[in-house]
Specification:
Family: Belongs to the iron/ascorbate-dependent oxidoreductase family.
Helix content: 25-40%
Bound molecules: N-oxalylglycine, nickel (II) ion
Largest sheet: 8 strands, mixed
Organism: Stephania japonica
Pfam family, one: DIOX_N
Shape: globular
Domain Fe2OG dioxygenase: 205-306
Strand order of the largest sheet: 1-2-10-7-12-5-4-3
Radius of gyration: 20 Å
GO molecular function: metal ion binding; oxidoreductase activity
Number of domains: 1
CATH class: Mainly Beta
Length: 356
């Protein structure tokens, strides 16, 4: 009995979604002044639901497969150059499938604590992992987020790691992650074309890995003191994010810009490894996540990224006298270690690899 209680209280401290029922933000989650979000949109206090009037995100429309290739490539590059991201619509993945994925992700964090606890772990290498914050043991201030992360490629070799509950989780996420992978690879093909590379340039070890990350940001008593995720660039080649409530901000021209959810859209972001191999021709956008005080927010991120031993270096075709390489050669593992050691801070992460 005593043991069970001790075990439970340890778990309560590890995951926010396991009963942290507080009226004020615990001290270890309060961000230092300089990191706190200012000018919070009032929607975070009232309701973070979609506000179409304020809608300014760049959109790329795949027109259900009937898109004009050259025009679409141009749209993608313009969006990435100006905003660092875009919202992808009419991409061929049904709203039903997206909604189901969101439902099972949300349900996972609504289940009783015992069902999640089994998957809790601190290591980064596990094929499935439930955790809280970012690099929990190595940070002074924690972030207001729990997460479920697992491998999902190849799907047949991954599903046995996944949660058994909610009962539909494996079936729904298997179908979803295969569709999203195909979509991510299609986007990478268009990007390769736009860079003047052969269309299948990103096939192989650069995109061999894929994980699903379910982020869960519980309702927070005071969003002005906390962050769901710190300022970061993704450790991926490409990320496709599914969201239905507001919370994501990207840094545009030195200002934080909200990314309002657009029903049925994926938010597409390029990661730091992509920026490195593109020699800054395409950049990974800095982004962060705000919390809100009215409801929990769940997002589903699909991350496509290189194998550990994959070499990252500026692509030869993108280098010339005017564009000398900006980064030294490194492995993805080296990059990822730096990303973690820097607690996701983009400048710190990239320092050891920068040539100028
Ligand atoms: C991420 C991320 C944003 C969000 O998972 O890398 O930036 O709104 N997520 O959950
Ligand atoms: Ni991110």
């Amino acid at each position: 009995m005593v043991d069970a209680q001790a075990k439970n209280s340890a778990t309560v401290m590890r995951l926010l979604s396991d009963g942290l029922n507080c009226r004020s933000v615990p001290h270890s989650y309060i961000q230092p002044l300089e990191k706190r979000p200012t000018n919070l949109p009032s929607s975070l206090i009232s309701s973070p639901h979609c506000n179409q009037q304020n809608y300014t995100s760049p959109i790329v429309d795949l027109e259900h497969g009937r898109f004009d290739r050259a025009k679409t490539i141009q749209q993608i590059f313009k969006a990435i150059e100006e905003f660092g991201f875009f919202q992808l619509i009419n991409h061929g993945i049904s709203k039903e499938m997206m909604g189901e994925a969101m439902s099972v992700g949300r349900e996972f964090f609504e289940m009783p604590m015992e069902d999640r606890e089994k998957l809790y772990c601190d290591g980064f290498e596990k094929p499935v992992k439930v955790a809280s914050s970012v690099v929990y043991d190595r940070e002074d201030v924690h972030y207001w987020r729990d997460s479920l992360r697992h491998v999902c490629y190849p799907v047949e070799e991954s599903t046995h790691f996944w949660p058994l509950k909610p009962p539909k989780y494996r079936e729904v996420v298997a179908a979803y992650s295969e569709k999203v992978r195909a979509l991510a690879l299609k986007l990478l093909e268009l990007i390769a074309d736009g860079l003047g590379l052969k269309s299948n340039y990103f096939d192989g070890e650069l995109t061999q890995m894929q994980t699903i990350l379910v982020n869960h940001y519980p309702q927070c008593p005071d969003p002005s003191l906390t962050l769901g995720l710190p300022v970061h660039k993704d450790p991926t080649l490409i990320t496709l994010l599914l969201q239905d409530l507001f919370g994501l901000q990207v840094l545009k021209d030195g200002e934080w810009m909200g990314v309002q959810p657009l029903p049925g859209a994926f938010v597409v972001i390029l990661g730091f490894p992509m920026q490195i191999i593109c020699n800054d021709k395409l950049k990974a956008v800095e982004h962060r996540v705000l919390t809100n005080s009215s409801t929990a927010r769940t997002t589903i991120t699909t991350q496509v990224f290189p194998t550990k031993d994959c070499t990252l270096e500026p692509i030869e075709e993108l280098i010339d006298d005017q564009n000398p390489p900006k980064y030294r050669t490194l492995t993805f593992q080296e990059y990822f270690n730096a990303h973690m050691a820097a607690r996701l801070d983009p400048e710190e992460t990239i320092k050891p690899f920068k040539l100028h």
